[in-house]
Design brief:
- The chain is an alpha+beta fold.
- It folds into six domains: 112 residues, Arc Repressor Mutant, subunit A (Orthogonal Bundle), CATH 1.10.10; 116 residues, no CATH class; 220 residues, no CATH class; 83 residues, no CATH class; 49 residues; 77 residues, SH3 type barrels, CATH 2.30.30.100.
- The protein has 36 helices and 23 strands.
- Strand 4 and strand 5 form a beta hairpin.
- InterPro entries: WYL_dom (IPR026881), XPB/Ssl2_N (IPR032830).
- It holds the Pfam family Helicase_C_3.
């Protein structure tokens, strides 16, 4: 008799690849053989994940397979065209949820995962199987009016009861309208109800309540003391023979939202503007946090006040600030430093991100958002225990978020260009495409997805734009986006009113220096900066000189520097550092004793607790930072002094934190086995493992281990990597030498699939498995001749 594993074994390689593509979780790790694959595919967790991917009609076909005695009745039971039913059965076979070529049947594990298919309970002979023989005899006696004769065992009594309940119309009418109302409540599922004392035997003549009247007539079966179930035959009679109320073979239409049509170019430009703005805001936020990082809460996450401060800095609503923070975190640009008393800091990857053009930066942000299981919309809400959910905390994680985002955007892509899908229509379509994932969480995720996609520039006026379509399709979105973005400029217009106008996005180095020497006054199509004594002093405090500032602005100004700006820089620089503050707790030093006389005579200096140590030195009991602030409040421009007399740069350098190897990074890595090359390698490994299991492991090992004779190959490291990459491009096998952890060299015959991250991933013919090899342990690589390749196979 053919088993499920035998059926899988008879599938072609293309069919196995289709199965593993549809259910990639079956390859974590790669099963030893096809029997192990069949066993893993039948586990409750694996079956449940596969069912979650089915649309409403395909799921209904599977449920009907569980209910109907023969698959021939599927088109009539579903009121659907036979070709649509055939397509659904093909999908079920591709997912491995139905098997058998001539007469498809549910795969192992499906029935256990769907205890009430089509909202129906078990048939009579199953649902009453827990009744004792005496109770079954009493039930049959009540229904027929005479004691059963010749029914010595429970099995025959169950068969007789099934005959009596095959047409329960008279029994339902006899039970009364109240009992009928109770049945109607359970008719379309779930078929299970809760009552009191369901196990107590009850007869038709003594039944008092509606539930008792139903139990006495077999229209309900007692599962345990408090649970009753409607037998399948009774429910089907009440449904008029229908399995489902409103299952359709086609999804609901994508009704367009009502709005005036907009030209395609306007839609794309609007989305590109949002994309550029998202990149600019992330850069601005991380630049600030690199200098002044917010602390990590003890419970994890970002404090509400710090999120509010970020929103104020960026001039955006708090929900958008939370989104930008979470996207930066998801893209690996932001992390926490240390386990205790840490801070939120940019990572070294942020500096590499800054080196890319705007389109490349946006691509990294968009991919991080698309794959992240964190939900920015939850920031500021309360969890089930009424605790506040902070941005960047683990409470933001929702495992269904990536799949929901992807599904929602796929529907927008399906709508076609020029079409805008209404939110209600989107929910209805997703409800049909993924009915098992429905619920309040998904409903909210859909709304958040639309809002966040618009904020990140994936949609414009509700329409998915071409570069977002490229992103979803796995293509490079940068060319389609780049032509709609403003080019970075390295020239500004400096005006006599001490303002500078940046006509577009500035190159990174100029943007950093200008942000240090001037304050942003307004943003928009052009950014306006204003020079003030405080901003110039900020640059001087950071170690710049007046000559540095003048030279920078002269090089990047489209016009000669206005005289008021050069006067401002020179005036602040002349006064800057005139006073020097050290630590006694602290002191004030200057070459002019008259200046110290003026300070001591000023009543505003009283809180500074100053006293004279020498004609040119004042001491204070305050800390140096407090003394600096106090003197600056008096209108002076002191600088901090090191013990050796040098000036201390008071603006800290930008800080960075290495991301720990924790879940937030691992979660964003693509699954090892989801790409086509890895799936093909896994299929080869399954075939080889199956052959080894069927023909004998030792015999298969001798065939696979026939490596070329001689010592393992050796080659220079760079040549090794180049040859492996060339083998990946052309396909085929290579001979490598590999050192184990004890330093012992061995020969391997490998079909390379991928070279990245310091590892070679490929199908190891000598082990009949997909394996990862550390590149630094590969001693060399050699091409296989036709003779050696045939020997090794």
């Amino acid at each position: 008799m053919e088993t499920y594993a035998d059926w899988l074994r008879a599938r072609g390689d293309d069919e196995l690849r289709a199965l593993l593509s549809a259910r990639p979780e079956l390859l974590a790790p790669v099963p030893a053989d096809l029997a192990a694959l069949a066993s893993r595919a039948a586990t409750p967790a694996a079956v449940s994940r596969a069912l979650d991917r089915l649309d409403r009609f395909t799921l209904a076909v599977l449920e009907a397979l569980l209910v109907l005695p023969s698959p021939d009745g599927l088109p009539a039971a579903l009121d659907a065209p036979p070709e649509r039913v055939a397509d659904a059965l093909g999908t079920l076979r591709r997912f491995g949820l139905a098997w058998g070529d001539d007469s498809p049947a549910p795969a192992p594990g499906v029935r256990q995962s769907m205890p009430h298919p089509a909202g129906l309970g078990p048939p009579v002979q199953e649902v009453f199987a827990g009744y004792s023989r005496d109770r079954l005899a009493d039930l049959v006696t009540d229904l027929t009016g005479e004691a059963p004769r010749g029914f010595a065992d429970a099995a025959r009594l169950l068969g007789r009861l099934a005959e009596l309940l095959a047409d329960p119309a008279a029994l339902i009418e006899d039970a009364g309208p109240e009992a009928r109302a109770a049945l109607d409540h359970l008719t379309w599922g779930p078929p299970v109800g809760r009552v009191a004392d369901a196990r107590r035997p009850v007869r038709i003549g003594t039944a008092a309540t509606p539930i008792e009247r139903l139990l006495a007539r077999g229209l309900l079966a007692a599962e345990d003391d408090r649970t009753v179930t409607v037998p399948r035959e009774v429910a089907l009679h009440l449904r008029g023979g229908r399995l489902f109320r409103d299952v359709t073979a086609d999804p609901p239409p994508l009704t367009a939202a009502t709005r005036a049509p907009r030209p395609a170019e306007v839609v794309v430009q609007a989305a590109a503007g949002e994309a550029f703005n998202a990149v600019r805001l992330v850069e601005e936020l991380l630049e600030r946090w690199g200098l002044d990082p917010p602390p990590v809460l003890r419970s994890g996450g970002l404090a509400v006040r710090d999120l509010r401060a970020a929103a104020g800095l960026l001039d955006v609503p708090e929900w958008k600030a939370a989104l930008l923070v979470e996207v930066a975190y998801a893209a690996g640009l932001l992390t926490r430093s240390g386990d205790l008393d840490g801070e939120w800091l940019p990572t070294p990857a942020y500096d590499l991100w800054l080196m890319r053009d705007t389109a490349g930066r946006w691509t990294e942000l968009a991919r991080g958002w698309l794959k992240s299981d964190r939900v920015a919309g939850l920031a500021g809400e309360r969890d089930d225990r009424d605790r506040l959910i902070n941005a960047l905390s683990e409470a933001m994680v929702r495992s269904s978020a990536p799949a929901t985002r992807r599904a929602a955007l796929d529907v927008l892509a399906e709508a076609g260009r020029g079409a805008v899908v209404g939110e209600d229509a989107l929910r209805a379509r997703l409800g049909w495409l993924q009915p098992r994932r429905a619920g309040p969480t998904r409903e909210r995720l859909i709304g958040w997805t639309l809002r966040e996609a618009a904020a990140l520039g994936l949609t414009g006026f509700g329409e998915l734009v071409p570069f977002a379509r490229d992103l979803l399709a796995g293509a490079d979105p940068e060319p389609a986006l780049e032509k709609h973005l403003p080019a970075p400029v390295d020239e500004i217009v400096i005006q006599a009113d001490l303002t500078a106008i940046a006509p577009g996005p500035l190159v990174t180095d100029l943007a950093r220096e200008l942000a240090l020497a001037a304050d942003v006054e307004s943003t928009g199509a052009a950014t306006v900066y204003r020079f003030t004594p405080e901003s110039v002093r900020r640059a001087l405090d950071a170690g710049r000189t007046a000559a540095d500032l003048t030279d920078l602005l002269t090089r990047h100004s489209a016009t000669p520097l206005p005289q008021p700006l050069t006067y401002l820089i020179d005036d602040v620089a002349r006064r800057h550092g005139h006073l020097r503050v050290g630590a006694l707790s602290s002191y004030v030093r200057t070459d002019s004793s008259a200046t110290l006389d003026e300070i001591l005579a000023d009543r505003r200096s009283d809180p500074l607790r100053l006293y004279r140590l020498a004609p040119t030195v004042l001491a204070s009991g305050l800390q140096r930072a407090a003394l600096l602030d106090g003197l600056r409040a008096m209108g002076l421009a002191p600088v901090a002094e090191a013990p050796g007399g040098g000036v201390i740069v008071t603006r800290p350098d930008a800080q960075r934190a290495e991301p720990p190897p924790t879940a937030e990074i691992v979660r964003l890595r693509p699954e090892e086995h989801t790409d086509a090359s890895m799936i093909s390698a896994a299929v080869r490994a399954l075939r080889a493992g199956d052959e080894a299991a069927l023909l004998g492991a030792e015999q298969a090992r001798r065939r696979a281990d026939a490596a070329p004779s001689g010592e393992p190959p050796r080659s220079p490291s760079m040549a090794t990597v180049d040859r492996l990459r060339a083998a990946v491009d052309r396909g085929g096998r290579v001979w490598i030498g590999y050192l184990d952890q004890q330093g012992q060299a061995s020969s391997r015959i490998v079909e390379p699939v991928r070279v990245e991250g310091g590892f070679l991933t490929g199908y190891d013919a000598t082990r009949a498995a997909v394996h990862r090899f550390a590149l630094h342990r590969i001693t060399g690589v050699a091409e296989l001749t036709d003779d050696s390749a045939s020997d090794a196979s």
